[in-house]
Every structure is written in structure tokens, then in C-alpha cells.
Amino acid sequence: MTELLSLIKERRSVRDFEARDIPEETLMKILEAVRWSPSWANTQCWEVVVVKDHTRKERLRESLPPGNPASRALVEAPVVFALCGKLERAGYYKGQKTTKFGDWFMFDLGIATQSLSLAAHSLGLGSVVVGLFDHDRAGKALALPAGIELVALIPLGYPARITPAPKRRAVTEFSHRESF
Residue 79: which of 13, 155, 14 has the closest Cα? Predict the structure, then answer.
């Protein structure tokens, strides 16, 4: 537990990367972490597009609003993972919604994103999860088919700089016992 908790505590959002490639073997280890992420009824509703092409990364950057702090990271990172979800799988049974919240893909993609980020950190890589962008425009840049929704863009690389941890709420500020 100590090692996992250390990874969770030490992982940071990284937006400045060294100009060096990530070995394919390392990328496969990160994708393996996604593979073993838990999901609703084991639906494994994620799809991951691995982007290395500079022109395609530039098209993805164009989907970000002006001033987004991840703009530079999106094109300078050696790799960008585009995490996507298959619609109407997670949270569905026999084609019908089975949860109060409907499609459960965002929950499953959140777990997969955490797995990816922690695996990358454990391998000496940095990442930042980007969620503020024009999803439809970025989806077109990736040629996503119908029924697949782009959820997050994750630039990934060797950190050029690590920022200190932001202030966190104390456990007593967010935890409740027996009732709210």
C-alpha cells in the first residue's frame, strides 16, 4: 500500500516535456495498465488512440480554447493518448440503461485515466489530463467513428520540470461517517 500511495501522492500534472521519444515497450506497459482497469460488468468500454504525428497533434491543439495551459504540451509531448469511450455499453444491460446516471462510460474512462497516469508516473513519465477542448473537432481530427466519444487528451513524456503538490483538503474535510 505504501508504494501505491506514494505513486498517487507524487504524481503531478506535467506540461513541460523533454524532447526525447518514449520506447514502444514503455507505451505498451501503459496500455496494459489501461487494459486491466476495472469497468462496469467488465465491458471495457475504452478505446485509446495513440498519437505521435506532429500534424495530427497540431490539429488536436486547434481544438483547445485560447489560453488553455495544455496547448504547448499537446504538441511538444512525444505522445498524446486520446481516451475514448464506446457509448451505450457501460451501465447498460440488453440495450437498456440500468443506472440512475445512464451511460457509465465516463466513470470507466476516469478509472482508465487514473491507471494510465499512475502507470506512466511509475515509469518515470509525466502526463496531464486535458478535458477542456472542442470534443467534436478533436474527434474529427482522430477520425472517430459513430458511437465512440472522445473524453480526454493526455500528453505524455519525460518531465522537463515537476511542480510542487497543490494544497489538498484534509480527510476530515470531505469524509463523513454513517450519514452526511
Answer: 155
Whole-model pTM above 0.90?
Answer: yes
State the Cα–Cα distance between residues 31 and 54, nearest whole angstrom. 21
DSSP 140: H
Sign of the dihedral defined by the CA atoms of residues 143, 147, 151, 154, in that order = negative
Per-residue pLDDT tens digits for 60-69: 999 999 999 9
- Contacts (Cβ under 8 Å, ≥6 apart) of 126: 12, 14, 17, 120, 156, 157, 158, 159, 162
Q: What is the DSSP letter of 163?
A: P
Q: What is the DSSP string of 68-127?
A: -TTHHHHHHSSEEEEEEEETTTTTEETTEE-STTS--HHHHHHHHHHHHHHHHHHTT-EE
CB 116 within 8 A of CB 3: no
